[in-house]
């Protein structure tokens, strides 16, 4: 591990701590005005599905993309947290018995196991809804024009033409045998769309021109595809202890992955190519984009 | 039935037809850009849970509140359809086996019966997400400032401090025994919040001042409480044929209602009082508010 890798991972870890602190505050008992009854079990389920978890890669990408183009860090932190609420809602719903039926996530019981199915469904619904509240709220100090661009991009990245549509295609693929193009499309929607939004959101927050916005959007698209390839490779190769979840599950479930269809060697090569393409898009920004470059490498090389 | 009642119901029916036509178009195969793969089963589940249904009371309230204050009818129609997507998502999720476990709605199989649970969850998620897309989209010809007010009000009316929070309190109430204030709070959140938003949205669309906005918000709040009382009274009194769904279900499920707690006579009186209070708020607008007045009476007197 080189020194720059260490400092990148420290940087990522510090960003995750700041995201965690903001999410704790956004999901505290004080997140609702006094005149509204606090549905305590619902808030507890929302916190269970959101706090203490993960690398917070999506908020990190929002923050770094925004910083690259001179966006306000506090706005980027709030938008990053909104995006993390959408990501966590999707995990809560994907884990449900009628979807992937997972009992644990990150070594803890999933929300429907810790609470019950109804609470998990409502917690996911509420986190999704809350994301739009966080973006639109006066505390997010951004012009209305930019807020509306964020609302529109986030709803399209998360909805039927993005993440939710991808999950629907993924479930259907368990009983069909999609080809390479079909798998790429469903993965671009299911996993890629939110990572693409993360990078595009940074450009929107910074008020970037359409060219830079498109550049970051394409960068996000490429690392989104890379992320899923790396994930599928990890599922085949990593041992369960490193990954913190069961491995070989994709094959057991008949999940459509490019690794299963084209082999691990092909996937390694494609992953490397995508990573170089993503990094190439950043050349325009020079050394200011070092952290985003390292993020692309981190995604390709991560072990968990 | 007086002549004015007949013409009110015709007016409501014509509005429902226009809402239906707009929803058909918003949920058609063309609702996604060409480069996005259409998740056909997801779209079919979304249509099943949204089309051919109901009086479309919420879009009607958006349209009438907006018209009262001079708002653009096309904008009001789009915002009303967005709100109907949120309403239909909530019905799809409430019907799920882990919630109310209903097999039929409006005489047809519920979404999880016609498709499966995963499709119903994803269809609800996608409808909720789509609502924000519809409001933020360029086709909704409204200033960004007003769109952000709509996004913020809708997310708060639908989320943990509104509809979803109310559903969570309602499920918890099956195992506790909330008092009058507790039931009123959960009903104001679960059913009332969206009806309140419908009326407030009209004021936002029309660019009304804070006083008129508050007036319509309070009107919406009162007819929201009235709506739920009328619903609970119908569950006790109506026969199943008129209502198109099973009756007496609230008691069988141990649902917390004011009718169960305080009796039908008390509820009738309270319903009449709320309706007069709501109508009183409209006096300020004179005869221009006739249709909203009739709507308040319709809510109190409806038989289904």
Automatic annotation (TrEMBL), chains A, B:
Keyword annotations from UniProtKB, A to Z: Isoprene biosynthesis, Magnesium, Metal-binding, Transferase
GO CC aspect terms: cytoplasm
GO MF annotation terms: metal ion binding; prenyltransferase activity
One Pfam short name: polyprenyl_synt
Cofactor: Mg(2+)
PANTHER family xref list: FARNESYL DIPHOSPHATE SYNTHASE (PTHR43281:SF1)
NCBIfam families according to UniProt: FPPsyn
Protein name: Probable farnesyl diphosphate synthase
